[in-house]
């Protein structure tokens, strides 16, 4: 299998997604119930030192080049800034990014930039505070807007916005979201709603598809597809808007899966490796850490986990099973 993270189909994982917590301070309807979930117990969570060690193994021993911190909501992790700082000291230095709901970003953006964070993705599904309250069950819209501005001020650029459209709720906002993002200098990416909700209530028939999103945008903007070769392993297909240089992206995980080019490996907040976002199995690295496993042994466990990755997520298969863990517990 070699020293890197490669699977039996020849795909090499160079992008590590690290979930720092399963907790979140929003209750988005497409993610979790209003009352929240049963959070992981603190002893089950990786410590800051364990996270830093695993990222070091991934970067120095397994060829990972990009590290994205996710959640839940990663800014709820008290040691976030220190984790970023220590990972920024690794050689070779990985590109470090963060996916957040933006709450708390206004007060943390500068510290994160100074610690070594390179860029940031912020989830924002609507420009309407009332719709935001309906979608997230929280009145924090202005906090997200302030966080986005703070990210730009701190130099965490390009600032990307991730938006999920829900039928009957906010799907009509696609053109307005793009127009506002262009005005603010943000790069907008729409994401098809995926079967990763805790309630297991996802329904393909009610999902707003990439085709619908693009059709809505085309009513106001001229969209020119970027060459497929420029996409690489990125999940988003991108279009130049009105001739460019501004772009808009669509992550069509359901209707246009990109499994063939996937280069990601995932680490949950409790130390489990997932070789696919939709995997139904995991490999336990926490036990190896806590039982005195060497870097070499942990790296070998990780390589074996990735070697067994399936050819595709299988969303279109008749026997597709939604993962038991929701997105908040997996990490994006």
Would you kindly provide a written description of the structure presented here, covering whatever features stand out?
The chain has 332 residues and is an alpha/beta fold. The protein has one domain: Alpha-Beta Barrel (TIM Barrel). The protein contains ten helices and twelve strands. It has helices at 48-62, 80-88, 105-115, 129-136, 141-154, 174-184, 210-218, 286-290, 295-307, 327-330; strands at residues 15-19, 66-70, 95-100, 119-123, 159-164, 187-191, 223-225, 237-241, 247-251, 264-267, 272-274, 283-284. Strands 7-8-9-6-5-4-3-2-1-10-11-12 form a twelve-stranded mixed sheet. α2 (80-88) links the parallel β2 (66-70) and β3 (95-100). The longest helix is centred in the N-terminal third of the chain and has 15 residues, at 48-62.
Provide the fold topology.
Layout lengths: L14 E5 L28 H15 L3 E5 L9 H9 L6 E6 L4 H11 L3 E5 L5 H8 L4 H14 L4 E6 L9 H11 L2 E5 L18 H9 L4 E3 L11 E5 L5 E5 L12 E4 L4 E3 L8 E2 L1 H5 L4 H13 L19 H4 L2
Parallel strand pairs: 1-2, 1-10, 2-3, 3-4, 4-5, 5-6, 6-9
Antiparallel strand pairs: 7-8, 8-9, 10-11, 11-12
Helix pairs in contact: 1-2, 1-9, 2-3, 3-5
């Amino acid at each position: 299998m070699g020293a890197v993270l490669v699977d039996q189909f020849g795909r090499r994982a160079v992008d590590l997604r690290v979930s720092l917590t399963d907790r979140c301070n929003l209750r988005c309807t497409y993610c979790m119930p209003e009352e929240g979930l049963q959070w992981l117990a603190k002893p089950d969570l990786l410590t800051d030192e364990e996270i830093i060690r695993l990222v070091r193994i991934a970067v120095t021993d397994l060829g990972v080049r990009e590290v994205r911190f996710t959640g839940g909501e990663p800014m709820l992790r008290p040691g976030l800034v220190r984790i970023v700082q220590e990972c920024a000291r690794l050689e070779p230095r990985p590109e470090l990014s963060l996916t957040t709901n933006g709450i708390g970003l206004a007060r943390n953006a500068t510290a994160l930039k100074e610690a070594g964070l390179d860029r940031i993705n912020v989830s924002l599904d609507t420009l309407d505070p009332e719709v935001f309250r309906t979608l997230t069950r929280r009145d924090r819209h202005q906090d997200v807007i302030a966080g986005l501005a703070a990210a730009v001020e701190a130099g965490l650029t390009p600032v990307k916005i991730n938006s999920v459209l829900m039928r009957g709720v906010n799907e009509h906002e696609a053109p307005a979201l793009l127009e506002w993002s262009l005005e603010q200098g943000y790069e907008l990416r729409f994401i098809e709603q995926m079967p990763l909700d805790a309630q297991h209530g996802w329904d393909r028939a009610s999902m707003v598809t990439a085709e619908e999103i693009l059709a809505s945008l085309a009513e106001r903007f001229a969209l020119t597809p970027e060459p497929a070769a420029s996409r690489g392993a990125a999940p988003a297909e991108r279009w130049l808007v009105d001739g460019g240089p501004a772009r808009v992206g669509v992550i069509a995980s359901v209707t246009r899966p990109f499994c063939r080019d996937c280069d990601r490996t995932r680490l949950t907040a409790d130390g489990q490796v997932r070789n696919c976002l939709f995997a139904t199995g995991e490999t336990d690295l926490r036990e190896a850490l806590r039982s005195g496993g060497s870097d070499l042994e942990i790296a070998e466990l990780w390589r074996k986990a990735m070697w067994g990755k399936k050819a595709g997520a299988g969303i279109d298969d008749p026997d597709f099973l939604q993962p038991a863990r929701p997105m908040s517990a997996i990490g994006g």
